[in-house]
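Hi L.,

You mentioned the student needs an example of a multi-chain input paired with its predicted structure. This one should do, with 560 residues in total across all chains.
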Amino acid sequence: MKRFAKQALFYSVLAGLWIVLAKLKIWPPYVFPPPQGVLESLWAGFADHSFWIAIAVSMKRMLLGYSLSVVLGMVLGLGVASNKFLEETMGGLLVSLQSLPSICWLPLAVLWFGLTEKAILFVVVMGSLLSVTIAMETGRQQMPKIYGMAGRNLGARGFKLFWYVLLPASLPYILSGLKQGWAFAWRSLISGEMIFVSLGLGQLLMMGRDLNDMSQVIAVMILIVAIGYLVDGLVFKTVERRLQHKWGLAPAT
Amino acid sequence: MTPNPAHQSVTTGDRRSRVRSAARWKPGDAALTISLRHLNKPAIPKVSLEGISLSYKTNGGSRLLALDNINLKVKAGEFLCIVGPSGCGKSTLLHLIAGLQPASSGRVLIDDKQVEGTGTDRILIFQELGLFPWLTVGQNVEFGMKMKGISKAERNEKTDYYLRLVHLGQFKDSYTHQLSGGMRQRVALARALASEPDVLLMDEPFAALDAQTRDLLHDELERIWSETGRTIIFVTHNVREAVRLGGRVALFTFRPGRVKREFLIDLPRPRQLEDVTVAKTAREILNDLREEINKSLEEQYSHEAVR
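Structure written out for the whole complex:
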């Protein structure tokens, strides 16, 4: 509760500062909108359903793209981790490719797929695939070997060994990578949507810019942050807590 | 030991059952089951190791011979203990029998049929157990059956049976990290037994336990062995433990591992670690073992001198 009080205080001071700055009218309101203007934009956006639609479209792309990169990344990461040749050749490429912002793939994606959903999906996958792959690779290596041996010993082989033993055993080691992959995918998606016109939060943000409507821009920014925070807090934190409880890594709550 | 009230109650439960099983014990029981099995399959040993050798490359590039021409036969229902100094390859031998690792040469036969790779007819209990922390105790125990594709109802029934056998009935839904060391050990035993293997391979399973828990588990293992009639190959560096449990003790030499001598232990059961007869037999074996330990120490020191 104490922590909550501190946070409440912090955010009210921040909001107060914003109100005062806006009241001083140093900049015109279309450059520096007051908080109530942003609130109005938020209200209006939800009222005319444009925000709901944008969120739905963006989340659909996220889920598709992210699931794709999780599946692909796990297969790739496992391959790299269990094959010496792949590790020595592809391992370095993967790490170096990770320094490339995924939005750099957009020109290629547009050439290959046109201005379609596929191009956006491609950018999202490229944004998170490498994180997942590298996480899976290191997770597979960090995972104690005993689990794989115990699994084989008890008759697990092939896909069963992967699904029932290797995957759950490496989960604590790959969870942070999965989380990072989600964050990268989210950023790639928004930048992708900002660059080419399509429904979605990124486009809504650019529309605000085109209309010189800074209230809308800030409203959408708040939405993007809020969704990212919610997914982290609701999905990943829950998974993390349950894992820690099961594995006995933290005191049970 | 942690003052865990749940564990206390189990401990007392164990003691009661120990008294019970000791009272019920008839010396001829185990021998009877063995001889009955022998009527069905006269001369075929349960496990045969034929000329097993293992060598591998060291970091320096030279080849190291870890196991040298191991020949051992284990009868069905026999309790064989393997003792030797650390570094004699006795744990590695269990991994070879379990099929987790290929031998450089030689064959492993079960019922006169050569085996390759892992198989649920031979289940290894690892020194570090390898229980799955993401599964509950019950799910750990049923894991092998699940891999075999046994129906859920049968799995449930057998899981309950084997958990009761190791006195962990009320811990089915706990996670393994919530249990004490001795209880985890029993989960591993139940998990191995639930796959109903012909051969149980145990790799220094009680080395990390405190003395009281270990004594208790000795009693339980002896009881379970006599009740289930499994063939057990038990690796330990503790000679008294080997004499306490085994019907036969095979002494391994230090690197390369060879069978130096075999001892038939025909002391009456149930035995106790403190029995004079056990101590006496152990001393005899220990005299032979000490030579090997000295060899291992010498090698260690000579390496250090070179450095």
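You could point out the following to them. The two ends of chain A are 17 Å apart (CA to CA). The CA atoms of residues 78 and 118 of chain A lie 26 Å apart.

Best wishes,
N.
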